[in-house]
Amino acid sequence: MNKTNVKQILKKRFGFDSFNPGQEETIQALQSGKNVLSILPTGAGKSLIYQIYSYLINKPIVIVSPLLSLMNDQVERIRYLGSSNVVAINSEHDWKERKSILSNLEHYRYIFISPEMLNQKEINQSLAKLNIGLFVVDEAHCISKWGIDFRPDYLSLKSNLKKLGNPQTLMLTATASKKVQDDIIKKIGIDNCSRIIESVNRPNIFLAVQKTETEMDKQSNLIYLLTKLKGPGIIYFSSKKMANLMSDMINLKTKLKSAPYHADLSNSDRFKIQHQFMDNELDVVCATNAFGMGIDKSDIKFVIHYHLPKDLESYVQEIGRAGRNGQPSIAILMYSDGDEQIALNLLESSFPTERDYENYNKHKFNYLDEQTKRLLDFYYQHGYSESQIKQIFKENHSLKVKDLYKLVDYINYVGCRRKFIQANFDENFDMHDDDCCDFQHDQIDLTPYEYFITQPTNEFSDWKSIINQLF
User: Fold this and answer.
1) pLDDT tens digits, residue range 260-274?
2) Segment 303-318, tens digit of pLDDT
3) SS3 of 309, please?
4) How many CB atoms lie within 10 A of CB 186?
5) pTM of the prediction?
6) Is residue 113 part of a domain?
7) Domain range for 133
8) For residue 77, is it within any domain?
9) What is the CATH number of the domain that holds 422?
């Protein structure tokens, strides 16, 4: 199909006159028969790529998605655009519902699925009967970042692709260094891969680091910032307890409306908070990194990290949720001496302990948390010995520590912060000015980022506005 017809689909089906950077190039690479790794900025409309491509090939598309909330959100958007032939295969379905879906797969244009569901034999065999036109891995950096020690089923994508007949593959993400790109392609095991890479630079996001001496100073400083930055905004924590505490403090000491968001909340509570944030019924969400993927809110004014994220790439991914409307926004990373120890402790706790191995080998599974058991199940069932598993985790631990200290280097960097980030993604940057970052600023001028306290809107229920934000 020629370029004119692709533009006609863009206009007729989705109501847009032009593509965002990287979208059309990715579609053209797919049309040429290549597998594609497409790295486009947060909010660039990555899902539009496979939706348009579906009209070019008229075959079912399988999309691997990492989070239930993200999956459901994508399904609802596609339905809003007029496609009812979309389904998500996930843990929300009981056995009877899943059976019904699997027996009618040929009727769906878009099939969303988690890597864990894809790894189930019955589901994989049902998908293999289809003539899959495109296999999409959304948030493809998860293959590299989560596969080894968190979501091991991502490591089975390579073998599952073969079982599905090696369909054409599209990998989508907002951030991936050259090292991570290579790792994604290696782990998924595809050849003839084209890379479409747009810059990670978001020039409308001011970059800042605020250092404090004590935890109390940090809390006080955050409250002060929130008297100036009046939302909507996201504050990231690595501690669920601290997210709860600071959300309560924000409600008590400011005029802002805040709520915590993390894994201890029920699915219904998390869903409610997402909607309240989208509807401007909340000014601030105090969240762990579980919040953000699939939140397509264009007017987020600030993203603050109270605790350190895992690495620089995670940081860039998370701050990219600010300023999608192109308006001035700000990303502030708060730091007290020793904060990296909190991150190191969390890193240590993500790997199995000697006691875990002992309990597993003695079949004392009730002494293992679900995540650890699933992780060890994967490696033992794939024929790895205990010593081999430990070596894999040791090497991965070393890499993650190195990545964390790259973030600490960013915090302590004396120079243009944007230049530091761009260099990490093999990009050049030499256009530093006063609107870039806090380098050569004695004090941050928060005036450009002040915003009125949010008023409730029907933004989330108005799906047209959400589609406009997405694309």
Assistant:
1) 999 899 888 988 998
2) 999 999 999 999 999 9
3) coil
4) 12
5) 0.86
6) yes
7) 3-197
8) yes
9) 3.40.50.300
